[in-house]
Amino acid sequence: RTLHLGFLxxxxxxxxFGALVVGLFYLLGGIFFHWLATRNEFEKKLLARTSLLQYxxxxxxxxxxxxxxxxxxxxxxxxxxKYVWVTPWFNI
Length: 92
Description:
Blueprint: H1 11-37, H2 41-49, H3 52-79
Helix pairs in contact: 1-3
């Protein structure tokens, strides 16, 4: 199926649209997991003891695994989207 969106006809338009969607997904996921990590005093103490590298690693892995996998499952079951990212080398 095609979406019939004019800006998606070229490869640069597809790249920019895909980057915006993925960037927005990671931004909202980061905000959500930061909200979870600052809900009570104990979690705030744990957050204060972590370094920036530890925090960013946790954010990336939490979003990539804990949030992206259920999102991909929902897309597959509800909208029949088989692959989220297709390249000549691999499909995700």
